[in-house]
Amino acid sequence: MKKSLVLLLSILLCISLAACTNDSKQTANNNSQPPSTQAATPTEGQATSGVKTGGILKYAQSADPNTLDPYIYATEQDRNTFLTIFNSLMEYDPKTLKPVPGIIKEAKLSDDGLTYDLTIQSDVTFHNGRKLTADDVKFSLQKAMRPEATRTADLLKSIKDIKTVDDTHLTVSLSNRDNLLLDSFIEVFVTPNDPSIDQSKNPVGTGPFMFVQWNRNEKVVVKKNPNYWKKGLPYLDGIEFITVPDQDVKLLQLTNGQVDAIDVVPTSKVTEVSNNTNLQLSTVPVDLTVSDYILLLNNSKTPFNNLKFRQAVNYSLQRNKIKQALFGNFVVRSTSVPTGDSNYNPDTPQYQYDLTKAKALLKESGYNNEKLELLYHKIDISDDIISQIIEQSLQDLGINAELKGVEVAQWVDNVFNKKQFDMAITYTNPKPNTVDMLYHVYGAQNGAALQWDNKPWYDKLLSVRQLPSNEGSKVLKDLQAQVVDQTPNIVIGGHVLAAGLSKNVQGFIPDPQSKVYFESVWKN
């Protein structure tokens, strides 16, 4: 007999059974005030009092997208651009961080926990006019399960079979219980089952905005979807995603009214933006910060395949100095799991600055003064500040480190595509659950530890999805201690995010993963 569960209830049950972050998310939301730029999200697309419709919003971001394909993207710019074009199977409520219905309207879970009966939203059409059916959802899931879809393939491993029942119903059979499957559906975006469509260049989705054009290294233009299934949305007529690599130029354009919003306010200009009555600073509360600056280490070669070398580097980092240099917009920590998370392990190694200990470990590692390149991408001045402090920390330790800053596209090519690097600095934005906080940072496929080979650790992490809460929490705490001790890469510290908006932009809600949602945004 099947349990008839309205989707939201089944999600909440699912998350509460998982050994992840429902408790921590609830605590964080109860203990923090919503940012001043937050506005109520209309229920089922119904307009809110005072909302104005129309207008084009100009959003400046630091780099051009590399692709608009939602299955194989690599950067925030890729994702934030295509988020306007596609809907995911599930969505996060941007204010509560809890899963809510997306394209999936209702889920019914069998008593044995091995079968989901899914009902999809009716009267949804793709931008090319074709009606969405369960076959498209099946196709999208299968695309997201392919090995090349590195952000989702491992998260969907529990799926054994997918069958369509009719145009609005399908069943998903599992090989084992998966308490986070619906949560994982947030990363599965829906595309039409049409191989003639090149989603990387001319995307077709069901989202609030439709793709118009992409002028490379200049802008991506989208326009309002007049047939959007969330009635009354979106409010804007369109959006221009404008590529502006220079942070100072981008802020100047915001100040002068040439653009309406920018992805990142330069760290040195946060106070200036806060004091400008024509602008808004949109930040995520510290206790909701899951984003991290990370130092990738190429574990496939010497000296990074030596544990003592990696630990020496971790102990040498001057995190408090970084926080001071970033005007406090930084969380001092050496693990990807925040202290407020219910699964945080206080016994995890802390790697507090200890140059004496670091030098002793470096000597034991046998490091022989090899010249090592420290690669970083130039997006914000904070990248320069952090990279320079880390370079100095390494040199103080006795490592022959040379700093090199490049544009994002070159960084992605060297690190993610070619894997030709020694050390590389970036940041990561996991989902707000403990499994993804660990997997996103340390997963060899989806995460940042690109060459770390420890399959038993990965398998155990993924098995948490099948465990009761108390058992899963213990496993997560053990895995944290293990991976931070092994330090296949290094969490530099928490990345405090700050976007800049014109005072005329309303309804924008900052997201811990730096996702940008514009379907409920309007301009006064």
UniProtKB/TrEMBL annotation:
A family per Pfam:
SBP_bac_5
Is Transport among this UniProt entry's keywords? yes
- Which InterPro entries does the protein's record reference? Peptide/Ni-bd (IPR030678), SBP_5 (IPR039424), SBP_5_dom (IPR000914)
Region entry Disordered, spans: 25-49
* Keyword set, alphabetical order: Signal, Transport
Protein name according to UniProt = ABC transporter substrate-binding protein
Write down the SUPFAM superfamilies for this protein, in alphabetical order. Periplasmic binding protein-like II
